[in-house]
Structure formats: C-alpha cells, structure tokens
Specification:
398 residues; alpha/beta; ten-stranded mixed β-sheet; 14 helices; 10 strands; 34% helix; globular; disordered N terminus
Length: 398
Amino acid sequence: MFSRRWFSLCLRFSLCPAAILLAGCANSSVSVPTVSAQSDARPSEVPRQRQADDVARFIAGIPGGAGSPFVELESSDAWKEHRRILDEAWATTEGKLIRGLQNFQKTELTDPTFKQAPVFYPFSGPDTLTVTNCFPQAPVYVMVGLEPAGTLPSTAQIEKKDLDKYLEAIRATVASELDRSFFITRQMDRQFRGQVTDGLLLPILHLLVRTHHTIVGFRYVRLDEKGDVVERAANYHAPGKIGNKGVEIEFKGDSEPSSHKLYYFSVNLSDQRLKQDPQFLNYLGHLKGSTTLLKATSYMTHRSAFSIIRDQILANSAAVLQDDSGIPFRYFEKQEWKVQLYGEYQRPYGSFRWLEQPDLRKAFASGGAKALAFRIGYGYSQVPSNLLLARRGQAPAI
C-alpha cells in the first residue's frame, strides 16, 4: 500500500495504513470503553440520518432510495456512465477478491471470538472492503491512517461541480483497491488532501455501500485527553500538532438485524509522534483482546521507528492476521502464539526486496501452509500472495 516516500511522509505528517492482525482466545478480555462490543446495546450516540447514505450511493453509482436528493442528477449522462463503469469494475472485484475473502472467512475465521472482539486495522487507509469481509460480524472496527478524516459534501456542493470530471476523479480514488486489493500511498496523497476529496470519509462510504451496507448515521469525532471518543465540529482545529481527528460511522448489512460502528482516526503511528500523543496511546489501552488486521503496510512495523505501535499490537491483540508486510515473523514467539500460514512466500516485491525474512521463508518451506485461493497485497499479479494468522496462547502449529 505504501512506498519509501510514504515512510518519510509518516515522519513528517501524521499516519499510515494497512495490515492484517486478528483476535482469538476465548478467555481474552475485551475492554473498550467507547468502542466496546456492547456499544450497540446502548442508545446510539451517532445521529440517525440518511444524508451520508444518500451521498455514498450517489458517488458509488448506486441508485438512491425514495426521497433521495440526487434523483435529478442520477438522470444525467455523466452519472449513468459513472454507474456503468463502476458496475463493471465491482463485478470483477466481487468475482475475485471479495469472493476469495468471503470464502477465506468462512473456512478460517469462524472462531466465535471474531464475532465479539473489536477489529483494529492500523495503516488501513479507507480499506473497509477487506476488514468487513474478513470480519463481517465484528461489532466495532477501528481504522487508522495518515490521511485526514474528511467531511461529507452537501447535495448543493456536488451540484455545483463539473459532474463528468468529478465522477471520473471519484472512480480513480478506488481504482487501485478494486484492481490490486490495496490503496497506493502516492495516489492517496494526490487525491485525499483536497484534490478530489478532503479526506477518507467518501471512499470509506463508497466501499461500505458497494459491499451491501446501509449507512445509518455518522458524526465527526476526536480523542480527548483520556483517550475517549468525543464529538467535534467538522472544522475543529486541535491546538498543536496532535489532533486525533476522526469520523464515527454506524452501518448495517442489508440482511443484518443489528448495526456496526466504524471509527477512522488520522494519526501518525511513528514512535516520534506517538511519544507526543498520550491520547491515542490511552485509546489503544481500550483495545485489549482486539482482532488486528494488517495489509500492505509499507513494512512499517519492520522498522525501529515504528516499534511502539508494533509492541502495542502484540500486547493488545488476541490474534493476528497479516501479510508479510505486517509484524516480522520472529516476533510471534512459539511459546505464546499459534501460527498458521497461507499461500506462498517469496522475496518482497519491488522496492521492498531488501526486507526479505529468511525465517518466514523457512517456515513456509517446512510445510503446513494452507493454500490461498485469491491474490491480495503487494505484487498482486506478479508474485504469489501470503497471509499469516497468529492466535495467542495456543500450541504452535509450526
């Protein structure tokens, strides 16, 4: 998902995206004050309104429901062409990546704890597609990335745009995810800082409604001094460099009786910045027993400059699912983690070749790896894909 340039951006700005870590352990505690698995049992703090769902369906090329404010725009040639192109792109993605993720979930991720634990997805970018297909029943998803959270445009703001150019640019913001399974950092830097959108809210909403979800409501949030989630104004400016600004989205699947919560926070996960961010570190303390997902991370947790987030993940997670760009294999000590490998491991693709893991190569070569029937992560069509699922406190498989 990232390049070496992204690594320098992390140190200069505020965060990074994507890897796969999962939570297991039936006796693991899940204590998440403001993002707990029980949050849906309480009266929702998210304003219930249809505006976000209406906007999401319009930009995703899905006809709106009765009373949608976009009915007239949906009759335009620009939107009809937008819908046609996206329908074709999504049909391809559903037939390959999404079907592969869903089959993997049904065979490998059926432990009841995956239905109860929050899912933590650092270095995620706007990638709700992977996390909701791997963990479709999780009550809460916590995503973190370098890019700003963004705001929801009004109908009037969209009506003023050159619709052909705007919708073409919107399609480009999800093209790499649909084609390669991950967002490309340099593209996000050109698209999500005011050029196409002012952050990740729109692509997140786009992916959610295209994967058969309805947006129930949303609000702008941030983390307070205790690490609790509090509401903020859309134009809130935090004093100093640390804002921890985000969005909270409530959504539900088309055939689901209950809803899910999704949080996206813009946070710099480098050691240099986390040492100045006790609010986010306090928030991580709420994620004990979580499921963590890591994918296409630019190998950030392989670097000493990202040791804090690596150590926090290992301490807080009950299980870990990741590709080889996640936490180095040597950190999953046999006395603490049961590890199952999937697919094939080769030397990392492209500019990450120098981060080859000899111990991981040896583990794959020793046998015991299960087949992986779909491609995911870097080198999507150039090298075989791999995943690693680590569960805490079980006898090692390898």
